[in-house]
């Protein structure tokens, strides 16, 4: 019923619309005065207000609004996760020299060395050192022995040795005796020649020999108390003993004898009897 009424009104509206169009085709403007004058005779009074139209479709989405004001500061967020490890940094400058460390432990002993070729000298060094001490201790004896080896003379029965130390006659006697000998006694020409040659070859002028007249003035004897019975070799004019003080005898490099004072000091010659084999 309602739809038919709507349709009817629609038809009436169309008829009105056609009518208005006809007027326009006659060259007359609706709004123009003449039209009003024309329509004055045909005046149509407006109808009642129509019903409300149907609700239209939703419009298109509107444009974005203006940016609003800055909001208040938010609450502090939670602590984030630990980040990945960074790359190694640059090397720093060289530091100062550190303190000296403590001495390390002893190393492993080395391999035993090769055997020596010519002389294992290190082995004998200690022994040689000890020998040096012994040599120093026996210096006096060694000197004597060396001198003996360097300048000794000998016969079938005896050794002769000139001691190159200046001694008095009595000191010379003692010196020879403590070494197991006696002041040399040239009891024949052969021995006298041997001693004389020894003195001369040693570059000496005189040595004490074992002859004296200490016991009794003018009666010369050898130090073993045997008298000068078969042999003597006095220098021309000797023994003189001008003041009675020359009781000891020296042999000159010529082999001649001369009585002289016993307290004088000079080199002397000892004799040592060879041991019988
Ligand atoms: C002196 O010589 C003789 C004969 O050669 C000898 O018999 C005598 O024992 C010798 N005297 C001394 C003290 O040597
Ligand atoms: C012999 O001895 C005496 C006293 O020492 C001395 O004056 C004299 O020059 C010596 N004779 C010789 C040849 O050396
Ligand atoms: Ca005398
Ligand atoms: Ca004299």
Automatic annotation (TrEMBL):
Keywords: Calcium, Collagen, Disulfide bond, Glycoprotein, Lectin, Mannose-binding, Secreted, Signal
Superkingdom of origin organism: Eukaryota
Gene Ontology terms for molecular function: chemoattractant activity; D-mannose binding; growth factor activity
Biased composition (Low complexity): 84-94
GO BP: any one term: complement activation, lectin pathway
CDD domains tied to this protein: CLECT_collectin_like
InterPro entries for this protein: C-type_lectin-like, C-type_lectin-like/link_sf, C-type_lectin_CS, CLec_Tetranectin-domain, Collagen, Collectin_CTLD, CTDL_fold
Biased composition annotated in UniProt, kind: Basic and acidic residues: 49-67
Listed SUPFAM superfamilies: C-type lectin-like
Main localization category: secreted
Cellular-component GO terms for this entry: collagen trimer; cytoplasm; extracellular space
Compartment annotation: Secreted
Keyword Hydrolase: no
Keyword Calcium: yes
Residue span(s) of domain C-type lectin: 155-271
Pfam family, any one: Collagen
Start and end residues of each stretch annotated as Disordered: 41-101
First and last residue of the signal peptide: 1-27
Family: Belongs to the COLEC10/COLEC11 family.
PANTHER family assigned: C-TYPE LECTIN DOMAIN FAMILY 11 MEMBER A (PTHR22799:SF1), TETRANECTIN-RELATED (PTHR22799)
The protein, known as: Collectin subfamily member 10
Encoding gene (name): COLEC10
């Amino acid at each position: 019923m309602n739809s038919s009424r709507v349709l009817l009104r629609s038809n009436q509206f169309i008829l009105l619309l056609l009518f208005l169009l006809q007027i326009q085709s006659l060259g007359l403007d609706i709004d123009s005065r003449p039209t009003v004058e024309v329509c004055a005779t045909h005046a149509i009074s407006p109808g009642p207000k129509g019903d409300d139209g149907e609700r239209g479709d939703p419009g298109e989405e509107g444009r974005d609004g203006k940016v609003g004001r800055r909001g208040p500061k938010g609450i502090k967020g939670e602590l984030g996760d630990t980040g990945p490890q960074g790359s190694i940094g640059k090397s720093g400058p060289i530091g100062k020299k550190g303190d000296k460390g403590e001495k390390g432990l002893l190393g492993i002993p080395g391999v035993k060395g090769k055997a020596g070729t010519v002389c294992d000298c290190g082995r004998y060094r200690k022994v040689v050192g000890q020998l040096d001490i012994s040599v120093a201790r026996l210096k006096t004896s060694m000197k004597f022995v060396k001198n003996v080896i360097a300048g000794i003379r000998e016969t079938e029965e005896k050794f002769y040795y000139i001691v190159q130390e200046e001694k008095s006659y009595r000191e010379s006697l003692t010196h020879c005796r403590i070494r197991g000998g006696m002041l040399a006694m040239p009891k024949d020409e052969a021995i006298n020649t041997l001693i004389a040659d020894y003195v001369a070859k040693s570059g000496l002028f005189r040595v004490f020999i074992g002859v004296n007249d200490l016991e009794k003035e003018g009666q010369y004897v050898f130090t073993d108390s045997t008298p000068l019975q078969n042999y003597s070799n006095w220098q021309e004019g000797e023994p003189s003993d001008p003041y009675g003080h020359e009781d000891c005898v020296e042999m000159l490099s010529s082999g001649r004898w001369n009585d002289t004072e016993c307290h004088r000091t000079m080199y002397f010659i000892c004799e040592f009897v060879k041991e019988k084999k």
